[in-house]
Amino acid sequence: MNLDNTTDSAAPIAPVSEAAPEPEIVAHEEPRGAIAEWTITILLLLFLTTTLVQAFVIPTGSMEDTLLIGDHLLVDKLAYAPSGPISSFILPYRPVKRGDIIVFRFPVDIKQTFVKRCMGVPGDRIRVVNKQVYLNGVKLDEPYKVNKTDYFDSYRDNFPSEPNVSVESGAIDMLTHHVVNGDVVVPPNSYFAMGDNRDSSLDSRYWGFVPRENIIGKPLIVYWSYDAPSDQLQDSGISLTHVFDLVKNFFPKTRWKRTFMLIHGYPIQ
To answer: pTM value?
Structure first.
């Protein structure tokens, strides 16, 4: 399955077979130790089923440079699953947190799967001023974020404001009912998501909040990364062009340094 995140192509994350453009307080949560992370990764790989993990490919650039076009991912579908009285002591369940990279069903079309960074959890206040994100009134330090355009867009870069492009009904509802004193306030059981490639991301600014039930899991590892163009990766069928490209360029176009790269969120509060 493909993970879409960009606006220039307006294409979703297509299965392995984002129109509008494609957080300063930082609190470090205690990360899992490297041994624990690799242990979980190996266990998931050994017991690979669609119940535990799911494979996706990134076809567009809205999460650059964190995730690249052509990154093939395994997504941990257990990370945010509700824990039971016994399973809570065995599996690493936890709530969705600010700064997590999340995979979710696109609210506008649940057949499509997107990957973005969670920027706001229920009750949070979000505002963008001149490309800078403010969370609950504090400007965020975002080492993962990139801005690849020099100009300022009146809606994209100063949000919330009057849309200057067509936006989805979820965004209209958000702007109409969930803006308080110039901030978007995230409602219960919802999340505000943005792409790291901030100037080229079709995200919550354009289609609204991510419902909790839409969240599938979080990317766990890049198991293979291949430098291919978006049009080949967005094809839901078998692209003969992509097949020929693989046969000819598998070794030189494989990004070997990204193979088995663990994917981490960036804890922000």
So the answer is: 0.80
Q: How far apart are CA 263 and CA 207, in angstroms?
A: 26
74-126: per-residue pLDDT in tens?
Answer: 999 888 877 656 555 556 668 999 999 999 999 999 999 999 999 999 999 99
Mean pLDDT of 4-23: 44
